[in-house]
Specification:
Radius of gyration: 26 Å
Number of helices: 18
CATH class of the largest domain: Alpha Beta
Helix content: 25-40%
CATH architecture of the largest domain: 3-Layer(aba) Sandwich
Distance between the termini: 53 Å
Largest sheet: 8 strands, parallel
Number of domains: 2
Strand content: 5-15%
Length: 651
């Protein structure tokens, strides 16, 4: 976390610093490095090749038996839609207010932030990445810090992963402007605002700020306001003056409030404030369908954004100032401050019709129309204060506060999650980039002949090159098993040890994995066995989730692909056959279950993810050579026939 002096220095350099205060839990800090547990000193048990094979066979047999049992869910938590909303939604009277409404026109909400990961609990309609050098990131791993994903969950969380948002049906668009350190130059923020204008967004969520005034930023804000966009910004932390862009009159400035219904001590205050919302001890969406508890004015902003989207959907012809005034006028009074009131979404909905009538008659500042909100803000003092200091936990359905350091059967520490995510984006940000050259890292089902230049097969007295199958299930198994050994390829890990593996892919994977040994010291904050395990498991997650982008076809057999000009095309569009990404996220959740127990993943987890989505319904896409590759990996299930296609329509 930046000190106040460091943040001020960055502001003077024209850099916006994210406003969220993240409190760490169960991590160690040594010399500025966040470390996971050290396991390199453990005494190792040496096993023979035959013992290794028998051990693997036993694991695979148990996994197959689980698949064969009718109704078996294979260990992953059920969706958590039935969970009761957290205190923050109760505090702003926003429980269950969103209406379904088939075909209803929704407000378009832009989250100008660090990106939003594709998680099953957030209604993400689209995204754009404006951060230089990060354009190739997979849609599943857009958010390198978790900040934007947490913000989006408060706006539109559907409860599936335990996070309920103010408006679960809001159309959320991720505009990635903050980098892996949650920072951005003013020029990129301005570019993001103009993107929102061109894309005709209705609302912009801006959970960041700077103490430094910028004329260029002010002009961008004025232009967005002139375009009818409602902007909602963070007042800032530190107890000082409201920061920009929230300090501009065109932006709604939001303060943070705690469970005791008082403005948070850390929240900036001033006459610019419009409303307060929960910003302490708030549970938010996180990486890999997980969640974390955090606080800051950043977290307060999306409550207001979600409320604005919900109110605006009653009549999108209303101007943004109408929504802004309605939110301000309907807020509850808070003790200890007259700067602003506490957001009350339910009362704003009740008062909507009367306020609209008066607004239409009298214009922007109607004198009456809303009876004063006399309800006393509810205090939620029972919120677990220990839980409030948890960062980045991924684990079981009960959301225990404890964050462990990667112990078997529990969740993952914040440091572990960060290393897993680092591995998950590595194939797109290293010399492994490119699906044609490195198909095993990017989920492609085969090589191209042009890639097979340094490995030949001898047939008689001549050497020939060929196009190879790339069994994505076998790749998943090899990388995750090497991961559980801390990156070491054991002597018994020959090509035949991994069912479905071909000799060329094995040769290249082995070369790639061994090349990392000289790089771990610079890639990882701490080169421990545990960190190498998490990193490589992340690389495996990238590989198999990419298969749902790069080895899939439409139902008619036409491949879903890039356009051939180096741009995204449909393969990486989350809105194009979105079920591909839903299955990919489910598969990721199953992989993490295996990682918790230090077990390799394979075709079993792929089948489990597919069954979770399509067991009781028809498939919406096909997966190339799915049945062949999973069967080669020694798993069998009828669900494979629903999605399998042996070759594309063009082959």
């Amino acid at each position: 976390m930046l000190t106040e002096a460091e943040a001020e220095a960055l502001g003077e350099d024209g850099v916006l610093v994210e406003e969220d205060i993240i409190l760490s839990g169960s991590t160690e800090e040594t010399g500025g490095e966040v470390l996971t547990e050290e396991r390199d000193g453990e005494e190792e048990t040496v096993i023979t090749e035959e013992e290794a094979r028998q051990r693997k066979l036993a694991v695979k047999q148990k996994k197959q038996e689980a698949l064969d049992r009718d109704g078996e869910e294979d260990g992953t938590d059920e969706t958590e839609d039935g969970n009761e909303p957290e205190w923050n939604l109760k505090a702003v009277n926003a429980e269950g207010l969103a209406e379904e409404g088939e075909g209803k026109v929704r407000a378009k909400v832009a989250v100008l932030d660090s990106g939003v990961d594709y998680v099953t609990g957030i209604n993400l309609e689209g995204y754009v990445n404006l951060v230089e050098g990060e354009e190739e990131l997979s849609p599943i791993f857009q958010d390198l810090t978790g900040h934007g994903t947490g913000i989006a969950g408060i706006i539109s969380g559907n409860g599936e992963t335990g996070i309920h948002g103010v408006n679960p049906h809001a159309e959320v668009y991720s505009v990635k402007v903050l980098d892996r350190e949650n920072k951005a130059p003013l020029s990129r923020i301005i570019k993001g605002i103009y993107w929102c204008i061109e894309a005709e967004m209705d609302i912009i969520n801006m959970s960041f700020g700077t103490p430094v005034y910028s004329k260029a930023l002010e002009q961008a804000v004025k232009d967005a306001d002139a375009a009818g966009i409602l902007m909602v910004g963070a007042a800032g932390n530190g107890g000082g003056a409201v920061e920009y862009p929230a300090a501009f009159p065109e932006v709604m400035a939001v303060a943070a409030a705690g469970p005791e219904a008082e403005v948070s001590e850390f929240s900036n205050t001033g006459e610019e404030l419009d409303v307060a919302a929960p910003g302490e001890k708030v549970r938010v969406a996180a990486f890999f369908d997980g969640n974390q508890v955090t606080h800051g004015t950043s977290i307060a902003v999306p409550h207001v954004t979600g409320a604005a989207s919900l109110l605006w959907e009653k009549d999108l012809t209303k101007p943004s100032i109408f929504i802004r005034r309605l939110i301000e006028e309907s807020a509850k009074e808070m003790e200890g401050t007259d700067a602003c009131g506490l957001l009350d979404v339910g009362y704003a909905l009740e008062a909507y019709d009367g306020f609209a009538e008066r607004f239409d008659e009298e214009g922007e500042t109607p004198e009456t129309g809303i009876l004063k909100n006399t309800e006393t803000p509810e205090s939620f003092e029972e919120v677990n204060t220990d839980e409030a200091y948890v960062e980045g936990r991924w684990g079981g359905s009960n959301h225990q506060a404890a964050v462990d350091t990667g112990s078997k059967g529990k969740g993952f520490s914040a440091a572990a999650i960060n290393v897993i995510k680092q591995g998950a984006v590595y194939p797109d940000q290293s010399n492994w980039q490119g699906g044609n050259k490195y198909p095993w890292w990017h989920g492609r089902w085969k090589t191209k002949e042009s890639t097979v230049t340094d490995y030949k097969i001898k047939k008689g007295d001549k050497e020939v090159s060929r196009i190879w199958d790339v069994n994505y299930a076998a790749v998943l198994e090899m990388v995750t098993e090497v991961a559980t050994e801390g990156g070491e390829i054991k002597p018994y890990m020959k090509c035949s040890y991994f069912p479905g593996m071909d000799s060329y892919t094995y040769h290249e994977l082995k070369k790639n994995l061994n090349s990392l040994k000289k790089k771990y010291a610079t890639i990882l904050n701490s080169n421990t066995k545990a960190n190498r395990k998490y990193f490589l498991y992340g690389c495996a997650i990238h590989s198999i989730t990419d298969a749902f982008a790069h080895s899939t076809t439409k139902l008619d057999g036409n491949r879903i692909k890039h356009d051939g000009k180096g741009t995204v095309g449909n393969a990486d569009k989350i809105t194009y056959v979105p079920e591909r990404y839903e299955v990919a996220v489910y598969v990721t959740r199953y992989l993490l279950e295996e990682l918790k127990y230090d077990v390799f993943s394979d075709g079993h987890q792929i089948i489990s993810g597919i069954k979770k989505k399509f067991k009781s319904g028809n498939a919406t896409f096909k997966m190339i050579r799915l049945k062949k590759y999973i069967n080669q990996n020694e798993y069998y299930d009828a669900i494979l026939d629903k999605l399998n296609i042996d070759k594309t329509a063009s082959e």
